[in-house]
Amino acid sequence: MLYSKKPDTLFMPTIAELLKNAPTDREYFIRALLGIDLAELYLHPTRVVDTAVVTRLRALERKRASGWPVQYLLGEAWFFGRRFAVTRFVLIPRPETELLVERAIEILKNQPGAVLDIGTGSGAIAISIALASPGARVTALDFSAKALVVARANAHMLKADIKFEQSNLLTHITWPRTSFVLIAANLPYLSDSRMETLSLEVKHEPRAALYGGPDGLDLYEKLFMQIKKHRHPKQRVVILAEIDPEQQTKLATLRGREFPHSQIEFHRDLHGDIRLGEIIC
Q: Does residue 7 surpass a pLDDT of 50?
């Protein structure tokens, strides 16, 4: 418990007392507030937690109870083994998206080139690729100036060499002149039906980073049209597009219409669901 028997009187509990019969997220909050790791948390159960920390913990748990994601409350999220700063202006990086990064790194091992991360948000995808593929020229794009502030801060913190540009998809960029271009696209892809079933937690994330039109593929259709316009005749382009598992057939159809001479492969995430479309042009 956080309080003494007097309703409004705070006390100074130990870590063990705070963790006894505690909500699932309390462990994360305590670690963040005290600046300790998991081992320290359980190695020092008798450590006394002062009143100021208990007050902040109480405030965090109130917001958490109203549906706020833990990552927004703590201002950080883990992705691909690294900690990224996040704010309510960016989508929280998902473990499923690590599949896109893994595939990008594998491709770039065999053919270095330019990388365009479309809709970078926190910069998690672009930064993870850049740190694992030093030979790649990575550019991260987002239409949101507030998102780019977060992405730039993460790149600086993690020492990733990335060029950032504010652009709605490819509207305001200079297309790379390299022989190979890799497009990393985790665009908003939730359809009307998916938006209706969002959890309270996900509803706190930016709608513009979630909603992809009636069938979820509006932005992918626009992106593919822009790629066709920009791409040089002899340039090899690979598009890695994260999707909802139910969009596999629609993405394949869209690919066939916009890139009739291309090939497409699909990759499954750790849950066994189709999560990534790889289009080879």
A: no
